[in-house]
């Protein structure tokens, strides 16, 4: 199932570009995406001049939020070029095991 984006009712992302991070425990993982202009989007800088946006900083307070984060550009707004995607293990919260995670990239609604 596609989760892009999880906290907005806008469907404009459906044919846009989205990066989704999902993980399997209560740890605080953070999705980072750097756009072609070199602008990084993550919890401290949740949007970019190019139109990219982080929808939610999941589990930042270790309260057991659903473990999913999305950084997306609406249809037609993602600039052409090379993107960098990374994951930061920010904190364990109450997790005692390593976090298994998956990053999914959608472009024009396709993986």
Describe this structure in words.
By secondary structure, the protein is mostly beta strands. Helices cover 0% and strands 35% of the residues. The protein is built from no helices and seven strands. The chain has a four-stranded antiparallel sheet, with no helix packed on it. The chain starts with 16 loop residues before the first strand and ends with a strand.
Describe, in short, the structure shown:
Helices cover about 0% and strands about 35% of the residues.
Strand arrangement within the widest β-sheet reads 4-5-1-7
> Assembly state here?
single chain
Cα-based radius of gyration, to the nearest Å: 13 Å
Question: Strand portion, in percent?
Answer: 35-45%
List the helices and strands and how they pair.
Blueprint: E1 17-23, E2 28-34, E3 40-41, E4 53-54, E5 68-73, E6 84-91, E7 101-107
Antiparallel strand pairs: 1-5, 1-7, 2-3, 2-6, 4-5
Which properties best describe this structure?
four-stranded antiparallel sheet, 111 residues, mainly beta, 0% helix, three-stranded antiparallel sheet, elongated, single chain
